[in-house]
Specification:
By secondary structure, the protein is mainly alpha-helical. The protein has one domain (11-124). It has helices at 11-34, 46-64, 69-86, 96-124, 129-134, and strands spanning 4-9, 137-142.
């Protein structure tokens, strides 16, 4: 038994994971962007917060389901524009530079996520066509007790 085992995530399960993470992050971003808060004690500027928030919005999709990035960036751009339009109505300032920081954050998240996706893919050796048919996306788990054998391992063929 090897010390590394793999969990195969099918495309529908990856899409469901990405969908729930994206919806959760959109709710968090919307709440934090529309509640009038004083961020003077938080380090970083408002633009840094926008970049970080929208990079975290795109990152899970880029890592787990790269085919969904164009739709997510389009939806994220509309979402960022709506936030900037609604912010003056709730006592915050809407700014075009904030919107451009949202776009920059989505680009940064997509680049980082794709880098992670392809690094894991190449590290695990799943670039070959024969292996890709069996496992599209894999998470590696480390067996920290290789001397202990499991009675029945469901991941072994």
């Amino acid at each position: 038994m090897s010390s590394l085992r793999a969990i195969v995530l099918s495309p529908p399960s990856r899409r469901i994971i990405v969908l729930w993470l994206t919806i959760s992050l959109m709710v968090c971003i919307g709440v934090l962007a529309l509640i009038p808060l004083d961020f003077s004690e938080v380090p970083g500027s408002d633009k840094d917060h926008h970049i970080l928030a929208f990079a975290s919005l795109v990152l899970p999709c880029a890592v787990l389901y790269p085919r969904g990035i164009p739709r997510l960036i389009l939806g994220g751009a509309v979402y960022g524009a709506l936030i900037e339009i609604i912010q003056p109505l709730v006592g915050r300032s809407g700014d075009f530079i904030d919107f451009s920081a949202d776009l920059a954050g989505m680009g940064l998240g997509a680049i980082l996520g794709l880098g992670i996706h392809y690094a894991v893919e190449s590290y695990c050796g799943f670039r070959g066509r024969a292996v890709q048919r069996r496992a599209k996306n894999v998470i590696q788990l480390y067996n920290y007790r290789p001397d202990k054998t499991v009675a029945e391992d469901p991941l072994d063929p």
